[in-house]
Write a structure and sequence with these properties.
- The complex is a heterodimer of chains A (about 290) and B (about 280).
- By secondary structure, chain A is mostly helical.
- Chain A has 2 domains: about 40 residues; about 240 residues, Orthogonal Bundle (MetI-like fold).
- Chain A is flat, with a radius of gyration of 26 Å.
- In chain B, strands 6-7-8-3-9-10 form a 6-stranded mixed beta sheet, sandwiched between helices.
- In chain B, β7, α8 and β8 form a beta-alpha-beta unit.
- In chain B, α4 crosses α5.
- Chain B is globular.
- The chains are: A mainly alpha (about 290), B alpha/beta (about 280).
- Chains A and B meet through α7 and α8 of A and α3, α4 and α7 of B.
- Bound molecules: adenosine-5'-triphosphate and magnesium ion.
Chain lengths: ~290, ~280
């Protein structure tokens, strides 16, 4: 043990100043902690509220059964869970290849061309666009032309929503790949294609996957884009060309019904949705956290 | 086979993607051809900035030639022109010519891919790919369409032995290359650089990030490799230049000041600038 000394190397010349500095440091630290707790407060209260109201009804039935008719009790919302999963998958099928390939083009093939700047600019603009606009667009482009509300239309709306997310995170991921890997690859006579597919993309994959997971949780939680593209359905999904139920629209619909059981169902659907989104996020963090180099 | 390498046989650097028979240096190039690489009034520009001002240089085959000179004098730039790596930088331009074994490397008939397969490069910072040791060495072969397992295995052993790394890693070929030590990584990069049987090996300060023991190993390796390769090495270490190279080129501000036998450069240089640099009076 070191003997406590009144003056040591690190003590400031005047004891008084040091005391005030310590006091100020303590105060500022306390303030920061208090403020961080304040930001956590809404999040924590949402989670508590959703769990408290949603938990009572949680059972296997929720996942395997259809919703009861208004006024009746029993049943669940298996069709809405299915619908959400189907539409998220459709949106991924559309947005993932497009997003990654665009990112490869603007970052690898033509980083300084006007086309790339335009794509980058538009993608950034699109991230800020209200999600309902994506719904309106898909309504006009798919629902109006096909004369049908459908899971496809919902998937398209969600795809437009997540395309910029995937594109921009993929671009970041590609930019993060060390130049020395590219040099090494070109240095042994690889073509740009080989360099991108064998070296750059595999190295960027974890970061790209994180972006995709982010997009999944975003798409699963959105109501506005699916509200008037997929509409809703009381039945199990049998085809992607029909109106389709989704968790978010179910919450929106049931919460405004005057029946206690439906309102409870809406709470449970919220809990399921929050769990789904949180799990995807945690999974993304765990599986695809950047490996140490 | 005759030694008539000026015959109609296609020039090695013009061999295209389809992998021909493993190309044997001795088929075509006689031992130590004096003007194997010829740099002819070569100027190089990054944008508008001219960084090489008309270099003339003839580098013999199967010798170690070192490039020395103060920082920023253009050693790396010239080195990276031999395999046209500088073309990856936008806005660069060159004048003059570089010929290897009589063929201009800028000739439209030369495929840059084939050229780079014939010229191995080792970088200042070792840069193994984030894959297995085995995967690193076979990468140059795989991209050339070579998939034969026994051929790949054989190449891995040959290259690792040449790079004096075989004994250290033979039991963990399929583990990540990123788990190697700095010196091992650099030797792995040398092994990878010689996997496609290049004739020329370019090394840009290959030891600058290594400790003295690893450096000694790489230097030994360089001396060993010169039997089969034409080696050009950029170095800031005068002792290294005198230990490993037979010829030394001294560059200053984008000009080639003096090019001669290493012994002469270090004992009796003919230019004052060279002498001042070597004795540490500037640079
Ligand atoms: N990508 C680039 N863009 C613009 N200028 C460059 C670029 N690379 C190098 N230069 C310039 O070209 C000149 C020569 O650089 P080069 O890297 O060839 O020098 P060097 O002799 O290898 O130096 P060092 O010993 O520090 O590695 C320097 O003035 C440098 O600033
Ligand atoms: Mg350099």
């Amino acid at each position: 043990m070191m003997k406590p000394e009144s003056r040591h190397f690190f003590s400031s010349p005047k004891g008084k100043t040091s005391f005030y500095r310590m006091l100020r440091n303590r105060f500022l630290t306390g303030l920061c902690i208090a403020l961080s707790l304040l930001t956590l407060f809404p999040l924590i209260s949402i989670v508590i509220l959703v769990i408290r109201n949603g938990l009572p009804l949680i059972s296997m039935n929720l996942f395997t059964q259809l919703s009861p008719a208004p006024g009746l009790e029993g049943g669940g919302f298996g069709n809405a869970i299915m619908g959400t999963l189907v539409m998220v998958c459709i949106s991924l099928l559309l947005a993932v290849p497009l997003g990654i390939l665009s990112a490869v083009y603007i970052n690898e093939y033509a980083p300084v061309s006007p086309v790339s700047s335009a794509v980058r600019f538009v993608a950034k603009l699109l991230t800020g666009i209200p999600s309902i606009i994506c719904g309106v667009f898909a309504f006009a482009a798919v629902v109006m032309t096909s004369q049908h509300f459908s899971a496809i239309a919902g998937g398209v709306a969600l795809a437009i929503l997540i395309l910029p997310i995937i594109l921009l995170t993929s671009e970041q991921a590609l930019m993060g790949v060390s130049v020395s890997y590219r040099e090494a690859s070109y240095g042994v006579g690889a073509t740009p294609f080989q360099t991108i597919w064998r070296i750059v993309l595999p190295d960027a994959m974890p970061a790209i996957m994180t972006g995709i997971m982010l997009a999944v949780s975003r798409a699963a939680g959105e109501t506005a884009p699916v509200l008037f593209t997929a509409l809703f359905s009381q039945n199990w999904i049998t085809s992607v060309f029909e109106p389709t139920a989704s968790l978010s629209v179910l919450i929106y619909n049931f919460a405004s019904l005057p029946y206690a059981y439906h309102i409870k169902l809406a709470w449970s659907a919220s809990l399921v949705l929050v769990t789904l989104v949180t799990l995807t996020n945690i999974l993304a963090q765990m599986i695809f956290s950047p490996k140490q180099r | 086979m005759s030694n008539d390498y000026t015959s109609s046989e296609a020039h090695p650097i013009q061999v295209s993607h389809e992998t021909a028979r493993p190309y044997e240096l001795s088929d075509v190039v006689p031992p130590s051809e004096t003007n194997f690489i010829k740099v002819d009034d070569f100027r190089f520009f990054y944008g508008k900035k001219e960084v090489l001002h008309g270099i003339n240089l003839e580098i013999p085959s199967r010798r170690v030639t070192s490039f020395i000179g103060p920082s920023g004098c253009g050693k790396s730039t010239l080195l990276r022109n031999f395999n046209r790596m500088n073309e990856l930088i936008p806005g660069v331009r060159h004048e003059g010519d570089i010929t290897i074994h009589g063929t201009s490397i800028f000739d439209p008939s030369v495929e840059v891919i084939a050229l780079r397969r014939r010229i191995g490069m080792v970088f200042q910072k070792s840069n193994p790919f984030p894959m297995s040791i085995y995967g690193n060495i076979v990468y140059p072969l795989r991209i050339a369409g070579q998939g034969d397992r026994s051929m790949l295995d054989e190449t891995v052993e040959r290259c690792l032995r040449s790079a004096a790394l075989w004994d250290e890693v033979k039991d963990r070929l399929h583990e990540s290359a990123l788990g190697l030590s700095g010196g091992q990584m650099q030797r792995l990069c040398i092994a990878r650089a010689i996997a496609s049987r290049p004739e020329i090996l370019l090394m840009d300060e290959p030891c600058s990030a290594l400790d003295p023991i690893a450096t000694a190993k790489v230097e030994e390796l360089i001396i060993e490799l010169k039997r089969d390769f034409t080696i050009i090495i950029v170095t800031h270490n005068m002792h290294q230049a005198s230990r490993v190279s037979e010829l030394t080129a001294f560059f200053y501000l984008g000009n080639l000041v003096e090019f001669d036998e290493t012994r002469k450069i270090f004992t009796n240089p003919s230019k004052l600038q060279t002498e001042e640099y070597i004795t540490g009076r500037f640079g």
